[in-house]
Amino acid sequence: MKKLVKSLITLMTYVMAFIYFFPILWLFITSFKQEKDAAIIPPSFIFSPTLEHFHEIWNNGVAYYMLNSAIVAIVSTFIALLLGVPAAYALAVYKIKKSNNILFWFISTKFMPVAGVIIPLYLLFKSLDLLDTLSVLILVYAAMNMPLVLWMMRSFFKDIPYELIEASQVDGATGLNTFFKITLPLVKSGLISTILLSMVFAWNEFFFALSLTYTNAKTMPVYMTAFMTQEGLFWAKMSAASVFAIVPVLILGWFSQKQLVRGLTMGAVKG
Amino acid sequence: MSGNLISHAEKAVIEKPRNLKTKKPPVKRLLYPGLIFVALVTQIPFIMTIYFSLHSWNVVRPDLGIHFVGLANYLHYFTQPQFYTVLKNTLILTFGALILCLVLGIIFALLMNRQFFAKGIVRTMFVSPFFVMPAVAGIVWKTMVVNPNYGFSAYFGKLTHSVPIDWLGQHPLFIVVLIVTWLWTPFFMLVLLAGLQSLPQDLLEAAEIDGANKGQQLLYIVLPHLLNYFEVVIMLGLIFILQVFGEIFVTTSGGPGYASTNLSYYTYREGFQNWEIGGASTIGVITVILTMIVMTFLFSFMRRRFKEELT
Amino acid sequence: MKGVSKIAIMFIFLFGVFLTACAPSADSSGEGKNQSDKGGSDTTLTIATVNNPDMKSMQDLTSEFTDETGIKVNYIVLPENELRKKVTEDVALGAGKFDIATIGTYDAPIWAKNKWLISLDDYFNKMSDKEKANYDLDDVFAPIKNALSYNKQLYALPFYGESSMLYYNKNILKASGVAMPLHPTWQQVADAAVKIKEKTGKTGIVLRGLPGWGEMMAPLDTVINAFGGKWYNENWKAQLTNPQTEQAVQFYVDLLHKAGEPGATSTGYTEALTLMSQGKAGMWYDATAGAGNLNDKENSNIVGKVGYAYAPTANKKNTGWLYAWSLGIEKSSKHKDAAFKFLTWATSKDYVKLVGDKKGWVVAPPGTRKSTYDNPDYKMAAPFADIVRNSLEHADYDHPTIDPVPYKGVQYVEMPEFSGLGTEVSQQIASAISGDTSVKKALDSSQKLADQSAKKGGYRK
Fold it and tell me: Which CATH class is domain C164-322+403-456?
């Protein structure tokens, strides 16, 4: 009986996942259709596939924008981690006065709608002559994601039983060493989740990228807009461009999930 | 067992002075760099925005110049009926999507917390909408799912011989809520799943030995442990959903009328459609103030109610 | 010590990344970046443009320009709304990163007034007689030149022009027993649409309902003009609730309800084109640009079954709209001479011929020059050419309405506030289309908005 229930739940999981994923699956399928077929009513699964859209987009230089997006995502996440993880640790482990206020202040930096702050940012970076550079996006995204890193890592740090940290220190390890060798591995799964989220936000961010870049620092989302309101039929091409945009992040997600397993072992404490 | 895990802070006080932990917290080294960086990049523009909100500046009418108008902009918006429609929409959209995401998120997280065949692929399938650009997601839904002429909803409608519903025209906010939920549930799922996985197995085993069934385990052990993560996901999720813009941009353009405009989109409408920078800045500042009020209440409510578990 | 060295390494890494990020990016095969290996000057023009098929052709053929002049061209391609936003941002806030901007007839006078563009008259005067004859400015349609001028000076050159017309599916009309004259009235069109719906169950006519001053408002404005309505009277008092305007809007909304496409409020130009080219509708009233697509085997299922008619009329004749995408030179450009060379190249007779030869005459840039329409190759490839030419030559840009009005513009009101006002009003009307409110109420709200704009903009004292 128990086995039957288990199998049923698993089956339900498969069904739910498929429905949830379906629009994306459709996006993938459409990218292989010719434009005429992509607009057919009712939607059909039968068609003669083509790779022409992928060729066209690749030859158009999409690799350059993907590279820009990748650099910006990686470096900004790195900075956000560099600044956020220690801060998260401090707020989680030490009794700091007004830590609630600090936490709240960080999240309040995200209250302003992007459209409201874009002109000031534009003017600010214009005066610093940083427009259309990757640095400007890196700076903005790092500031955008750092509160995320802070809030998430703080939760994960809070979950570490104090005994583990203490136990290692009895063996004479220094603070920083303890941190890297013991503490960090314990929050590995949380850290991976945080990194993944931060990279995705940076990769998909559109408004700042559109306003603050021109040609040199153009990222994928801005490139994608070129496909969105073209005159004429364009859904197959847009789907193909979307595939270019989604696949790297999907691959990243796929590989990182090996780390997203039960990380915390209590063996050390019990013994 | 959970009672034995004393908070770190208390431990720090009890422990004999032997290691770094009992010195003053190295706040400067750990906290200040992040604080200063974020402050510089966010607060300077914020002050500029406040400045602009006190002026009248229409970008396409440079001949009118930039004037100081004091609080006239604020007064203008508070006396517009559409402002209150926008507020209402923001509340419905934000809390509606939040609740849906929470419910779906915890369900998916619980489902994924088991072992079964092809678990990796399934997880990727659940998470994939999150990786899609909001604008692309909007287009996929608009043209593929809900389009009354050639979308899937029309297809199913034809099968059941009913008139295709013009979802985006009749129920625009509802569709936006659906799209936002679809996009953001994976975020909730990921965080809650990480929380579930950090739950020590032996806690559950001990409870099982004591005779608790799965339901009781869920209620009395799992959910309380997750409170920390719930707080994170609600606070962050709320902020992200509040800011939702791209989805509205490509599907309904905030319409018909103002039916699907939220505060974030309203800021865009004023600033980049009507080219009123002063107006957009005003809406932005109002948004920040309103959000602060709501979040302060939420934050302190959660802290007070669940004080024990959260600190 | 170990900790310190770790931090040091991180800083060096960061610094290195920072430097790479700051350094000018290497020239990869970015879209439209054209390299000439024939020496020449090292001027590079940056041009902001829309992503329509004509612009795509231009990008593809730019290598010819670079070969000829040694000037390189960098394209920034964006959808129309984003483009307008980005270029406005660039000129208004003074960054000046664009040399050439693609602007519409709507933008040109506004930008000229704001001193964001330079007048081209001086450059034309400096041309040699031979160059002038070659370019032949007189060949360009007068209404378009007019629309691109301010204070009698020309500020931009058109590379694409359009008016509006009626398309119909010959088969569907035949099956419904409907005939379509060459110069229909709106009442005839409405009756035909209803009959099509009754007889075949298909959508009678596709009309844009997507909110936007450049989406729904464009065809709707021509209907308002046709029925004798207007936006403002001579004293800049809003006229959206006057009987003719209301009659026009009511007509449009009713037609959509009775025989229009489902999901009208999400139907913009692209969606409408899709519906028509898939054979799902009997008629479609929209830009003449659609003609090329409807005749393209790659994209359309109704090639060979398309009928054409002039923009429907009512109390007023000549209701077809006027729009042109053109190139203008930004005031802050540091390469004005080179920019002017590009402008004249991309809008010349030779360029039209170049596209016709290399890409096919059916996609030659339409609507800018009389000579294009005299060309037998073009006429053969485009059976709709005469309608487009006549519509363009007779477009009433200066006097779009029956009564005198203080503004110009057929499918829009030539004022900077209109991109905002027109969109807001179209949102109100979209509410009426979706049934949330009545046309009367929508127009009442719109009236208030229009009066506000007139007051705030200083038009009405």
Answer: alpha beta
